Amino acid sequence: MKRLIRADMSKEDMVKTITDNNPAYNEGATWIRTEDDIADVQELWTDEDFGMYPDFTKEMAEKALKEGKVVVYSSKPFELGSFVTPSKMYAESYSGNGKIYSQEMNLNDIAWIDEGEGQIVKL
Question: Mean pLDDT throughout 36-49?
């Protein structure tokens, strides 16, 4: 069973927020559709295999876990259900025009999919 750092919002409520505001457009896309799709960011960021993005290091992840906050990036403006990443490089790769957005967010305001991607559940 996966857990969150703290229970600010239930996984059921997270799924509902995402489904109501940014539902998956097809079955093959990476998306949060069920509670089982939500990972524990603490487990993700302390895993020995951590290191998907060169611009979001293990040290940066440890600091974010300690503080409960992280700067996230997106190729689109921040809205409920939007995808975010702690990797500026990853966000830039999705931006067609080179513009990206950034914001410091609480870790629990994001339903994490994997170590580098999540969906906003609270603004």
Answer: 92
Alpha carbons 38 and 114: distance in angstroms, whole number: 8
**Radius of gyration of the CA atoms of the chain, in A:** 13
**Structural domain boundaries of the chain?**
11-120
Q: Which two tokens stand for residue 99?
A: 């513009």
pTM of structure:
0.90
CA dihedral 95, 98, 104, 106 (to 10 degrees): 0
Cβ neighbours of residue 111 under 8 Å, at least 6 residues apart? 11, 14, 15, 18, 32, 37, 38, 118, 119, 120, 121
b/e map 10-25, b = 16+ CB within 10 Å: ebeebbebbeeebeee
Would you say 78 and 116 are in contact if contact means Cβ atoms under 8 Å apart? no
| pLDDT tens for each residue of 74-117 | 999 999 999 999 999 999 998 888 899 999 999 999 999 999 99
